[in-house]
Design brief:
The chain is α+β, with helices and mostly antiparallel strands. It is built from three helices and six strands.
Length: 196
Amino acid sequence: MSTIHESANNRPEELQRLLDKELLQLEKITIEDFEVDPIEKPVTQEDLKQFQQFTSTSFRSLEELLESNQAVLPVDEAITRLQDEALQDRVQMAKRAVQIFTLFEDVRQTVDPESVDLLAQLDAAMDQAHLLLEEIGIQELSVYDEYFDESYMEAVGTIPVEEAQGIERFKVAAVFRRAFSIEGLVIQDALVKTVS
């Protein structure tokens, strides 16, 4: 009595026997069966004209394809140019919005500290304006207590370490104007004093 394992081992041998049996039953083919008939008729002028028309049509189609491709290139260039111009316009508008925000911030700095109600109203307006800037993609860059970074900070002076209230040397201890960016582009540098 054979086990399942033994019958599985015998399967390839059974398949080989079946294949050999089928091969023996196949019809034999000789090289003569593949003999090619010679061309029965010679090429005529009409055949040549048809071939010429076909190649001419193919060439015209190829030319049309190239022309249409060349027509697409200026469209792609125009789209790219419009996208670049749109980005430049967006950056310019963002700069204007930040300049307006900064003007209000400058006004707030000049208000008498005794005018508590007016300061509260200005602070509320400034907070709302800041949120509006964020909604249109303008981000404020972190400046205070950060190491000086000339890519978006401009130093207008220094503060002695004794007066820096625990801020490390080379870090920003005073901010006179905030820094903003849009889509990774700095649109306004911060004006700062660093610890010396």
